Amino acid sequence: xxxxxxxxVALVSGAARGQGRSHAVRLAQEGADVIAFDVCRQLGTVHxxxxxxxxxxxxxxxxxxxxxxxVAREADVRDSAAVQAVVxxxxxxxxxxxxxxxxxxxxxFSANAWSLTDDEWDEMIGVNLTGVFKTVRAAVPAMIEAxxxxxxxxxxxxxxxxxxxxxxHYVAAKHGVVGLAxxxxxxxxxxxxxxxxxxxxxxxxxxxxxxxxGSVLADDPEFGANLSxxxxxEMVEAVDISNAIVWLCSDDARxxxxxxxxxxxxxxxx
Amino acid sequence: xxxxxxxxVLITGGARGQGRSHALAFARExxxVAFCDVASQLDSVPYHMSRPEDLDxxxxxxxxxxxxxVAVRADVRDREQIExxxxxxxxxxxxxxxxxxxxxxxxxxxxxxxxxxxWTQMIDTNLTGVFHAMRAVLPTMIEQGSGRxxxxxxxAGKMGFANIAHYCAAKWGVIGLVKSLAMEVGxxxxxxxxxxxxxxxxxxxxxxxxxKLFLPDTENPTRDDAAPAFQTLNxxxxPWVEPVDISNAMMFLCSxxxxxxxxETVAVAAGSNAANAG
Lengths: 270, 278
Known about the structure:
Strand content of chain A: 5-15%
CATH topology of chain A: Rossmann fold
CATH superfamily of chain A: NAD(P)-binding Rossmann-like Domain
Oligomer: heterodimer
Number of strands of chain B: 7
CATH class of chain B: Alpha Beta
Order of helices and strands of chain B: EHEHEHEHEHEHHHE
Radius of gyration of chain A: 17 Å
Helix content of chain B: 40-55%
Structural class of chain A: alpha/beta
């Protein structure tokens, strides 16, 4: 049976593991070929282990096992030239571009906003906001030129809708992503390219499930308690976000644009 | 007797426009004023930015009201410049009661064609600049156990607009920053809010590049050409609000009357907000 995304090509940032790998696999299961990239190295202000080259290779293996094609590269979303090169190589090899998942992101906590260092602020805004812009900017001209329409899904967060203490740089970046998406939605509607955001609660990935986040929550139980969901589930799984993205990229959602879709186990309803 | 007698207000972007209006409004209510302004041109900005003469003019107008005024040329993108501005304000005026994070730029491009510099100067000025100003004043406000912070976001912080995605991203980001900081300092006697104006009658929108946003096909559009287009945004039939309308909301949020309002966004937007779900 043909998948819902047969013949499409999807660009996924941050695809070496976690949500990004899950999106790549789910999109491939629906028939899409994949252009995947990830920084695959440790950034200076990130306190948990980031993805490695081996992780990206595992993503490639999983996509190829599904009989889909994949172009995978190591590139930093903050590096405009590198991101453009990934897109150009991917489009030239796979022939088109229909879907963009601006997924790459980092997490970080501080005692409060005013004790954030310049490096912590700049790296967060650089990756989680400017990196999304750079991914989109690199991809959009090819999508417009192809004239096939398309779907862009940017990964924001519940922290892109409400405030949260101890991570002001993350909240600012994730709110910024929504602004970017809404403006883009207006610009790209005439080209039948839809732009939406997804807003996960905590997702069971190495970004959340690590010793660093564990110690932040253990040292501040009240903060941890405030992060609990309405539905009786501690975290959602990466595939829950991927499923929302598959829907947003499918024809089932052909008139859905400018939407901020929570996949949050009711977190925002509390 | 003014309602801000003995208070000190810090303003970023105070050389002209909304920032100057805030300086004079707070001074009339008795506050001493410290403001900074970059007072020079950024490459990506298509209209004339403020100049050193504008900075001097704001000083003169505040001093005519018999208030003290500390003016510093400083770029909100530069952490050290903003920290030394806050230090000078505190040293010379004795305390810091209010921060009005107002400095901002307005530039135009579709995402598909946006230059690196256009994105970077926007995010650095309109988002990171607000963070720098907040961080510079918070130690003093926490030590005092009191303070009011008001950041200027925009209706573009609640909606999307074509051709200004970078501006929207920065202004949405400001709201995220404001809401989070409000939670962090709720126990320190500090409130943190954002104001979301519709178009305001200042140089930032009264320029040909901004008119072109609404009238892409008109050659050399004028203020009169642009007014009906700007007016379509608003429920109240006016093309733009005046700087003093924003100053009035700033004064309310800094007054005792607003002591339990924090983490909030206030639209001063002639009803352009009424059509908006978020």
